[in-house]
Amino acid sequence: MTIGSLLRQYRQEAGKTQRAWIGDIVSPSFYSKIEKNTTRISAQDLIEILRFNHIDLASFFSKLDYRSKSEDELKKNVISKSIDAYYKFDIDQLSAIKDAIAKSAVHNKEDLILKLNTLIYTANSSPEKLSLKEKQQLKNKFYNEDNLDQESLKNFCNYMYFFDFTSNLTITKKIFKKFSRSNDEKIQFLVLGILINMIGISIKHQSYENATQMIKMSKKVPTKPSTCFSKMVLFLLENLISYHYEPLQVYLDNCEMQVKQLSLIGMEKFSQHCQKLIDENTN
Q1: What's the alpha-carbon Rg for the chain, to the nearest Å?
Q2: CB–CB of 275/264 below 8 Å?
Q3: 193-243: per-residue pLDDT in tens?
Q4: If I label 279, which of 7, 63, 91, 203 is the partner at 20 to 30 A Cα–Cα?
C-alpha cells in the first residue's frame, strides 16, 4: 500500500473530510493529489499530518508496502524523517522508525536499520554502543579513499563519530584537500558538516590545535545561503576555541548570541546541544 492510499484509508476510518484531516498543514487541492498518488508528500508534511491526527508513526510505516514500485521514494522519506528527528534529538521517534522498518517487508532493511542505529547512538551521545560488527559494516560502506564522491562524503559526515580520532582527522584532511575548491553547493555543505564534526571531536579530545586548523580550513569554503547554517555553527565553535586560549567575556557573549539565533530559527534542540557543549568547555 502506498503512502497516499494508506493516508486515505486512515482518514476514511476516522470519518474525516480531507480538509478536517489536514488542518492547515497543506492545501486541500495538494492533499487530494497525494491520496490519488499523483504527487509526493514531503517527510515533514507527512509526519505533521500523522501527529495532527494522533497516528502512531511505527504503526503507519508497518502497514506500507515497501515492495511496491515506490520503494525508493519510501526509503527517502524514512531517511528524511530520521534526519529530522535526529536534529531534534528525538530518540523516541528514531526508535519508532527503526521498529517500523524492522517489522516491514522493505528490501535490504538491514542497511536502514544500521543508519538508524548510528543516528540513535549519536543523538544519545553513546556511539560506543554500536557493535564491532556494525562499525566494520560502516567502514566497508562509507569510505573508499580511492573513489571519494558525494555519497561517501555524506556517509562519512553521518558516521565519523563511530571511528577513532586519528582516522577521522586523516580522512577529513584528505576530503578537504580534494573538495576545498569545489563549486558544488551540496559538496560545500557536506565538507562544512565534516569540518564541524571534526572540530567537535577535537574539542572533546582537548585537541584545540587541530580544532583551530579545522576552523581555518572552513573559512576557505564560501558563505552562501546553502552554507549559512553551517557558518553559524562554525562561528560559535570559533569563539568557543578562542575562549579556551583567552577567556574573555566577548567570546562567551558571541557563543550565547549564536545559541539564541539557532533557537530563533527553529533549531531549539540543536541550540540546547550547543549550549551544553559551551557549558562543558567553559566551566
Answers
A1: 21
A2: no
A3: 999 999 999 999 999 999 999 999 999 999 988 899 999 999 999 999 999
A4: 91
pTM here is 0.59
- Give residue 103's domain range: 68-130
User: Does residue 79 sit in the same domain as residue 32?
Assistant: no
Q: Report if residue 217 sits inside a domain.
A: no
Task: Decide which of 55, 82, 100 is a domain's last residue.
Answer: 55
∠ CA 219-223-227, nearest 5°, is 105
Q: Is residue 250 part of a domain?
A: no
* Mean pLDDT value of segment 124-137: 70
Residues 47 and 76 in one domain: no
* Cβ-contact 216, 183 below 8 angstroms: no
Whole-number pLDDT of residue 4:
87
What is the CATH classification number for the domain harbouring 34? 1.10.260.40
Residue 50 lies in a domain: yes
* 124 located within any domain: yes
Q: Three-class SS of residue 5?
A: helix
Q: Mean pLDDT over residues 25-38, rounded?
A: 91
Q: What share of the chain is helix, strand, coil (3-state, %, to 5)?
A: 75, 0, 25
**Number of domain units in the chain:** 2
Q: Which ranges constitute the DSSP H helices of 15-131? A: 18-22, 28-35, 43-52, 57-62, 71-87, 91-103, 109-123
Residue 24 has pLDDT above 80, yes or no: yes
Let me know whether 48 and 102 are in one domain. no
Q: Quick one: which of 1, 47, 52, 5 has its CA closest to 24?
A: 52
